[in-house]
Amino acid sequence: MIDFSACVEMMFLEEERPLDDRVRAAADSGFRAVEIWEWWDKDLPRLTRALDSTDTRLIALCVESWRDKCDLGDPSSHDEFLTRVRAAADAARQLNTPGLVVLAGDVVPGVDPTTQLRNAAEVLTRAGEATSRHGLELLVEVVNRAYEGPNALISDSRSALSLLRAVNLPNVRFLYDRYHAVLNGEPLGAEIQDAMPLIGHVQAADVPGRHELGTGTIDWAAELAWLHKAGYDGYVGIEATPLGDSSQVYAAARALL
């Protein structure tokens, strides 16, 4: 059954709450799972206490910042990328977090794209093998071309899934962010309809504006019904800046199921 997780980097910021209080506020509103971006600037023991005291699970964190990401098409970046993966895996184990979010980086000018994709597949394979022994998943994300990823090596769901099939490891899967997919012009179900076993996580925000579900133009009842019918039964991470109070986001999302 689909449920929802809260990105507490964007939600529950009212009253300038610190991170641990955001976790508590998310739990009080109904969320049983949360997500973060950067882990390296967080007080991890304090975060762990908030998670444990509320019986909330942190289901995903990022390996690196999208502002300072490795270009996986460039072999000279691979050692640094693997170092970052190992560090994130250590943090994930401390926090009991199953998912490590990664990007493939940007296109390297002057290098054949096929070669770059092969390089990316090779290092993702190494990273996947290294993290599988700890029961962790790498979640490869595609961002939108208009804002965050105009030069991204993998620029849509089709290219991401092709890369993941080349890697061919059960713990290297696709983070399907529906907000980014909509901005990239992908209709409901496009590209992923025959790839559900490769979907490791789903994220969402409404368009325009990247606000909570129901504030924009997307028919979220239809979107969620399609995901359920297609066999997805995990969390949909709400990675959005609420127009209203964060405490109302979970109930409003559940009403769409």
TrEMBL record:
SUPFAM superfamilies: Xylose isomerase-like. Pfam families: AP_endonuc_2. Transmembrane segments: none annotated. Keywords: Isomerase. Residues 23-241 form the Xylose isomerase-like TIM barrel domain. Belongs to the hyi family. This is TIM barrel protein. It comes from Streptomyces hokutonensis. The lineage of its organism: Bacteria, Bacillati, Actinomycetota, Actinomycetes, Kitasatosporales.
